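Whiteboard transcription, Tuesday session. T.W. wrote the C-alpha cells on the left side:
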C-alpha cells in the first residue's frame, strides 16, 4: 500500500470516529486502534504521516 493511501485511510478513520482532540483539528485522539498502531493516546495531526512511515516498507 502506498503511504498516501494509508494516510487517506487513517484520515477517513479519524473523521468517521470523530477523533479530533480540539476544535482547531490540529490534534487527534488515537482511540484503541490508532493507539495500538502508534503507541500514544493523542498525536498532532501533522505527525500522522511520519508515524505511518515507520510502519510501511519502501521499495528499493
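and on the right, the sequence the group agreed on:
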Amino acid at each position: 500500500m502506498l503511504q498516501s493511501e494509508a494516510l487517506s485511510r487513517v484520515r477517513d478513520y479519524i473523521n468517521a470516529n470523530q477523533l479530533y482532540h480540539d476544535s482547531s483539528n490540529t490534534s487527534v485522539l488515537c482511540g484503541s486502534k490508532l493507539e495500538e498502531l502508534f503507541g500514544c493516546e493523542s498525536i498532532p495531526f501533522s505527525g500522522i504521516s511520519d508515524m505511518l512511515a515507520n510502519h510501511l516498507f519502501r521499495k528499493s
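Someone added at the bottom: The chain has a mean pLDDT of 82.
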